[in-house]
Structure formats: C-alpha cells, structure tokens
Q: What sequence folds into this?
C-alpha cells in the first residue's frame, strides 16, 4: 500500500494468516452458523434484485461472496490479507485492498458491504474514512451495509464459556465494557466494539440515510456457546431454532441490540 499511514497492522495479517482459518469460522460453530444465516436473511431484505454489482470490502476468504454469487450477484472482493484474497479468488474477482482507500471508482457499485473492517479500526476517524470510501464507491441511492462487534458481546461470551469468574477474564472484559477497545493481547487483534446507536451515528455522519441497525444473532446466541462448550456437542435443532426465533423476535426492540454478538447496519448512499 503506497500510503504508509494505511499499512495494515502486522498483527491483523498474522492473526488471519497464521492463527485462525477465517474460511471455517461461520460453519464450525453453532453461533457462527447463526451469524451467517442471519446476515443472509437481513441483507437479502435490502439487496437490489440480482444481477447487481457488489463490492465486498474486508470480505475475507469469501464466505459471503459465495452465497451472493450463487444468488446471481456480480461480486468483487477486497481484503488486506493475502491469504484471504487467494482463498476468495476461487469464488469471485479478489484483490488486496484496504477499506480506508478503495481502488474502485466513484459510484461504481450498487452495494458496498463492510462485514469486518470496522472492528479492526479502533480509531473513529479511520472508521469514518472507511465508511466515506464506501459511500464514494456506491452509486447514489445504493446500499451500504456495515457489521460491527457489539460492545457487550464479551460479557455474554465469557459467561457462557464459564470463564468470567477468572480474574484475568473479568479484568479483560471489564476493560472492554469500559473503553470499547480490546487490546488484542490474546485470542483476537486490537479491536473496537460498537453500541448499536453509535454504529447508526457513524453511518449517518458520512451521509447515509434510512439507517437501520439489526442484532445479527439476537439475545440468546450465548446459549449455543454454553451448550457447545460444556458438552462438546452441537446444540440440538430445537435449541438452534429457538435462538434463531429469538433473534427475529428481538428486531423491533432496540434495547435488545445490546445482547447480540454482532450488529449489522444498512443505509442508503446519498442521491
Ligand atoms: C472476521 S473477518 C470477516 C470476514 C468476512 N467479511 C465475514 O464477515 O465473514 C474480518 C475481515 O476484515 C479484514 N480487514 C481488517 N482490516 C481491514 C481494513 N483496514 N480494510 C479492509 N478489510 C480489513 C480482515 O482481513 C478480515 O478478512
């Protein structure tokens, strides 16, 4: 990348190249499958009819690109991690790029989605830069969708994993609740966790209109984690269906956004 201020933090490249296989994240656990299913059903409500041009920014190995291509969309993917770009290239045109400085031309896509970059940008100015870029490359009236990790996800996750009573975890989760920032010392990278109203405000502040924020997994996702963790077994279909129903039922109640693991915001690029 030519602008040194936009270099990818080395720990992000290391995390996705060496520590985890992002291509399996949304299929290997029940809460991952719930995240995928709910992201699909929410996005499909707002996507224009296929074929339309979609830019998947921070699209990783292309898990979302895969179903969007199957739905008939013309998808291009950019991601700063070379491993992801080579995995995604099996699915759609993919190139190395950064959400803060997109190579795409103005108004060149019907849809721009950022389902990952925002939580990797702890600095608000950089998140707004990424959203401003999304608005620039979206056509007037086009859809911009952005995912965030919920500020409160870690308290649900670590209590479900029966870990919150451990002083190290209690202190780490308290710090996230207090500051919205995870320092990246273990298990994930330096990252930023949003409140629902804050994600909506960031979307509006770059000119997006008709902004709506959804709780992706809803209020009961951590029960899936608790069952998987305590039994080592896949949660049964009834529990999965019940948790999924809870996510759908919670949608009209903004106060329940606080209990979801991920947030998904949609907005319209200005005309
Ligand atoms: C958890 S993965 C999500 C991948 C995929 N979008 C999904 O939802 O399954 C987060 C992605 O954001 C990418 N990312 C991190 N920083 C970024 C940046 N500055 N610009 C664009 N993508 C970035 C990572 O490389 C990674 O692929």
A:
């Amino acid at each position: 990348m030519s602008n040194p201020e936009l270099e990818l933090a080395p720990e992000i490249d290391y995390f996705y190249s060496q520590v985890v296989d992002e291509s399996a994240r949304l299929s290997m656990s029940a809460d991952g499958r719930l995240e995928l299913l709910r992201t699909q059903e929410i996005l499909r409500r707002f996507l224009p009819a296929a074929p339309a041009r979609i830019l998947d920014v921070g699209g990783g190995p292309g898990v979302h690109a895969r179903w969007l291509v199957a739905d008939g969309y013309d998808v291009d993917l950019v991601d700063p991690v070379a491993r992801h770009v080579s995995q995604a290239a099996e699915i759609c045109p993919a190139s190395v790029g950064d959400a803060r400085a997109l190579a795409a031309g103005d108004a060149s896509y019907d849809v721009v989605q950022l389902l990952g970059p925002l939580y990797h940008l702890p600095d608000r100015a950089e998140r707004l830069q990424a959203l401003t870029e999304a608005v620039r490359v979206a056509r007037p009236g086009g859809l911009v969708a952005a995912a965030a990790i919920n500020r409160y996800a870690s308290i649900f996750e670590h209590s479900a994993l029966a870990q919150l009573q451990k002083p190290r975890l209690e202190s780490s989760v308290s710090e996230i609740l207090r500051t919205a920032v995870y320092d990246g010392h273990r298990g994930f990278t330096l990252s930023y966790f949003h409140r629902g109203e804050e994600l909506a405000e960031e979307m509006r502040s770059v000119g997006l209109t008709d902004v709506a924020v959804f709780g992706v997994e809803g209020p009961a996702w951590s029960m899936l984690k608790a069952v998987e963790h305590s039994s080592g077994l896949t949660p049964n279909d009834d529990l999965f269906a019940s948790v999924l129903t809870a996510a759908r039922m919670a949608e009209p109640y903004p106060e329940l956004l606080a209990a979801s693991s991920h947030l998904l915001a949609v907005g319209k690029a200005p005309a």
About this structure: Residues 4-268 form a domain with the Rossmann fold fold (CATH 3.40.50.150).
